[in-house]
TrEMBL record, chain A:
Protein name per the record: ABC transporter permease
Biological source species: Parabacteroides hominis
Coiled coil: none
Record's keyword annotation contains Membrane: yes
Membrane topology: Multi-pass membrane protein
Main location: membrane
Organism ancestry: Bacteria, Pseudomonadati, Bacteroidota, Bacteroidia, Bacteroidales
Keywords: Cell membrane, Membrane, Transmembrane, Transmembrane helix
TrEMBL record, chain B:
Compartments, as annotated in UniProt: Cell membrane
Annotated InterPro entries: ABC3_permease_C, MacB_PCD, Macrolide_Exporter_MacB
Record-annotated ABC3 transporter permease C-terminal domain positions: 291-410
Record carries keyword Lyase: no
Membrane topology reported for the UniProt record: Multi-pass membrane protein
Protein keywords: Cell membrane, Membrane, Transmembrane, Transmembrane helix
Transmembrane feature ranges: 21-41, 284-307, 342-361, 382-404
Protein name according to UniProt: ABC transporter permease
Protein's organism: Parabacteroides hominis
MacB-like periplasmic core domain span: 20-241
Transmembrane keyword on record: yes
Length: 422, 422
């Protein structure tokens, strides 16, 4: 049968060549799309390392002298840093608030980041100092964002049980000590700095956003209020970041009322809570360009599928019209209707499978030049099968659906009438 | 003659309904996708309220670099740099410096915590953008010079604060600073991204913004928008600016300011240029052109198969016409004209589809979510011309080859319905 169909396809080459070229183009582009969707979706679905549901970012402000209510320096003893700590305590005491934490350059979904080099203190050989992203956080940060260690235990108790001012992620531990445990080890800021710091805990790997791969990074933990006050000294208290986690069941719409109710507690001397924003909102706007890109790709895939559907329906519909005679003859000679349908299906699918060798050449070239994203997801046989297979399957499905229309027409055909056309 | 072709084409449409529907729908989807790309570009490029003179505007946004012996700082400029380099330019019709901040808005007695977009700007802003005032008027040169806390608010914000747009003279509290509302303007779409804001105030009224400068007072938070007298002046303005920069730099000890390739024009912005990275037209055309070509080619290949079949069906008719003296050109034109009916129908449908698709999908198509669309962004003559152009292109792509083929055939072969050719 196959040989026969090949012959038919060859004889129909004039009208087949266009649909073949379309399939060729579409299979190739669809594979590219599928591959990039595969990377995005696989990456998106791996655990992030933290949880932002019910978390809100609190922005602070500092009054300037011309604002009514400004407290001149001579009237208050406390520093801005101390005021900030009191302000956050006020927030934390609200029964609706589960936990509040101060941190610096550590807010998820924000562009405000810090980077610094870190080296092992024990190693005496000169090391290449790599620069890593790092976060300055209070231990409460780990509760606000529900960070865990590699086994899934909450991180904060672990940090509090051990001494030390550094927490590294699992990636960092692997990077630094080649799989040896990093807990309790000594690190330094750079080759020239004196004094070393102790690793207090190892957290699970974290990723900056859903679309990024996890990279080594570390935390500098503020153990005491003094650490916060020190940072407030050089970074200005109002620039220190704060997030609060609300109790389960709290809804975002209630936030405004809650803040208005406690508004007299939201100012401590010259420092005040300026605005509050759900982290979900920050996430949405931070991820927007990449999420949009994903949506656009899906639309393009849809566009291709619809076109293949139209192309197949059109081509095969017209073909059944010409070949009514031939098909009638077949029916008269005893071919069942399902057999006739099968003929057309095999014909359409063969067209698709003829594109495979050419597309494989294309894929080999693309892979040779390393154009697909192999940074976020490694290129494996499984990835190839999943992307190429799904591209072919989607198209095969479309072709099958497309052929269903003309095939139904054949089913209605009366062999005697069809033979008129012969 | 053309009337005859149209009649014939309509007859053929009726004869083979399914194929006609598929051809028209295929063209429509292709045109719809292409027009969405065009419309998204147009929203970036066209003149509309309140950016009615975009074709004469130039921008320096996040395009400032200050180099010193300590390294470089990239971002925006200080109010001093705005004054020294831009206010003193002779060529432009108007110049404005602006900074955007996100701050909560309240009214006396009711503190609120939801943040809005505040634009800190100058009187030049009101000359560059053609805001429609619902009530009141912009803040004046005198207000600006003496740092008087006057604010223009959008109608939406006026309603949010007071429930009415009749708010001139009433106070609005931005963070904690009290401003007096001097004007109310019609709401601005986020698509007008330079003019966009919820509240506009003179930047001299915010001490923190004014004093938050670094790198010898050259870096800060300000961007600049210029309005040229004529779009031919762009190069002259850039030349004049170079002189200003040199003069300004000579007043500094170490730091040197430059604006990369800024100011850029609206066209540069529309093709994706930003302050620190200018996109070359060539690269834009490669990327967008590639996408458009793909959106054209896939349906064209589809239609090719269909037109090929329907043209071949009429070989004998063509043979007769040729025998009676129709030339090659006449026959090709006939096929193209007939096909035109399909593509134009598809084109109109596609344009309608794209116009209804855009508002539904604007959230992922446009840069900012929640962008409101208005008629003057979308209904520009260029849109209709381009839709027509792309439809004709599809027509040419999908019917050109079959038309030439059938017109070139020997009369005898055509008359015999191409039997010898098989």
């Amino acid at each position: 049968m196959i040989k026969h169909i090949l012959k038919i396809i060859w004889n129909q080459r004039r009208s087949n060549v266009w649909i073949f070229m379309e399939l060729l183009l579409v299979v190739a582009i669809l594979w590219v799309m599928m591959d990039s969707l595969y990377v995005d979706i696989r990456t998106y679905r791996t655990p992030l390392g933290f949880d932002i549901t019910n978390v809100y970012k609190v922005n602070f402000g500092k009054m300037s002298p011309d604002i009514p209510g400004y407290v001149p320096d001579e009237l208050h003893q406390s520093s801005d840093g101390e005021d900030l700590i009191r302000l956050v305590d006020n927030l934390r005491q609200n029964p609706q608030v589960e936990e509040a934490s101060l941190f610096y350059a550590a807010c998820p979904y924000s562009w405000n980041t810090s980077w610094n080099s870190l080296i092992q203190a024990e190693a005496d050989t000169a090391q290449k100092a790599n620069v890593f992203q790092y976060f300055r956080v209070q231990p409460a940060y780990y509760d606000v964002f529900r960070f865990t260690d590699q086994e899934g235990h909450p991180l904060r108790p672990i940090v509090e049980q051990h001494t030390g001012e550094i927490v590294v992620t699992a990636d960092m531990e692997r990077d630094f000590w080649n799989g040896q445990p990093g807990l309790g080890r000594q690190v330094r800021w750079s080759g020239t700095s004196t004094g070393s710091m102790t690793v207090a805990a190892v957290s699970a790997s974290i990723r900056r956003t859903e679309y990024d791969k996890s990279v080594p990074c570390f935390y500098n933990v503020w153990r005491s209020d003094k650490d916060v006050i020190d940072v407030a000294g050089w970074a200005q208290a109002q620039n220190i970041e704060c997030c609060i986690r609300m109790k389960d069941g709290f809804r975002a719409e209630e936030m405004e009322t809650l803040l208005q109710q406690m508004s007299d507690r939201l100012t401590v001397n010259n420092l005040y809570v300026s605005s509050v924003k759900p982290l979900q909102e920050m996430r949405a706007s931070f991820l927007k360009p990449r999420t949009d890109n994903l949506t656009k790709k899906c639309f393009l895939v849809g566009f291709m599928l619809v076109n293949v559907f139209f192309g197949i329906v059109g081509t095969f519909w017209l073909r059944t019209q010409y070949r009514r005679g031939e098909l009638g003859l077949r029916a008269a000679l005893g071919a069942s209707r399902s057999k006739l349908k099968q003929f057309m299906n095999v014909e359409g699918l063969s067209l698709l499978f003829f594109t495979v060798p050419l597309v494989l050449i294309f894929i080999a070239n693309v892979l040779y030049f390393d154009l697909p994203d192999t940074y976020r997801q490694p290129y494996t046989w499984w990835r190839f099968l999943a992307t190429f297979g799904s591209a072919l399957l989607l198209l095969a499905g479309m072709i099958w659906v497309g052929i269903w229309f003309p095939a139904r027409r054949i089913a209605k055909m009366d062999p005697a009438e069809s033979l008129h056309y012969e | 003659m053309i009337k005859q072709y149209v009649k014939q084409a309509v007859q053929m449409l009726k004869e083979n309904r399914l194929v006609s529907v598929i051809s028209i729908a295929g063209t429509a989807i292709s045109i719809a996708m292409i027009m969405v790309v065009v419309l998204v570009f147009q929203i970036q490029f066209a003149n509309f309220y309140p950016e009615n003179d975009r074709d004469r505007m130039m921008y320096v946004d996040s395009g400032t670099e200050v180099q010193s012996s300590e390294g470089w700082n990239r971002g925006n400029m200080s109010p001093e740099a705005v004054r020294e380099c831009f206010y003193s330019l002779k060529q432009p019709e108007a110049v404005c410096g602006y900074a955007s901040q996100v701050k909560p808005l309240s009214i006396p007695g009711k503190r609120m915590y939801k943040a809005y977009d505040i634009k800190y700007t100058d009187p030049g802003f009101w000359k560059i953008f053609s805001f429609r005032f619902v009530a009141g008027k912009p803040f004046t040169e005198a207000d600006f010079d003496s740092a008087i806390s006057q604010a223009v608010v959008s109608a939406g914000i006026a309603k949010y604060l007071y429930g009415t747009t009749d708010v001139v003279g009433k106070p609005v509290i931005i963070d904690l600073a009290t401003y007096t509302i001097c004007g109310v303007v019609e709401d601005v779409s986020r698509a007008a991204n330079t003019a966009y804001g919820d509240v506009w105030v003179p930047y001299t009224s915010d001490h923190i913004l004014m004093s938050n400068v670094y790198s010898e007072g050259m870096c800060g938070w300000f961007a600049v928008c210029l309005l040229a007298k004529d779009s031919h002046d762009f190069d002259a303005i850039r030349q004049e600016l170079l002189g200003q920069i040199a003069r300004y730099n000579s007043t500094k000890k170490d730091a040197q300011i430059n604006f990369f390739e800024n100011p850029i024009t609206r066209f540069d912005v529309a093709i994706g240029s930003e302050g620190q990275s200018k996109v070359e037209l060539k690269d834009y055309l490669m990327e967008t052109g590639g996408l458009l070509l793909f959106l054209l080619l896939v349906p064209a290949l589809n239609l090719l198969g269909v037109t090929q079949s329907s043209v071949q069906k009429r070989r004998s008719e063509m043979g007769v016409r040729k025998a009676f003296g129709a030339t090659f050109g006449v026959l090709v034109r006939q096929v193209l004209y007939e096909n035109c009916v399909i593509t134009l129908l598809g084109g109109v449908l596609g344009l309608a589809l794209s116009l209804s698709f855009l508002p539904l999908c604007k959230d992922f198509l446009l840069k900012d979510s929640g962008t409101s669309l208005s008629g003057d962004m979308i209904f520009q003559p260029a849109v209709f011309l381009l839709a027509l152009l792309f439809s004709l292109l599809i027509n040419l792509l999908s019917a050109g080859i079959p038309a030439v083929q059938v017109a070139r055939q020997q009369i005898v072969t055509s008359l015999k319905d191409g039997e010898e050719n098989r």
